[in-house]
Amino acid sequence: MRTQSPRNANATVLTHGKLAGSWASSDAARAIMRLNRSRDTRPELALRRAVFARGLRYRVAYEPLKGVRRSADIAFTKVKVAVFLDGCFWRGCPTHYTTPKANAEFWAKKVKGNQARDRETDALFADAGWVVIRVWEHEDVMETVDRIIETVTERRALMANSY
Question: 49: pLDDT confidence band, cut at 50, 70 and 90?
Answer without folding.
Answer: very high
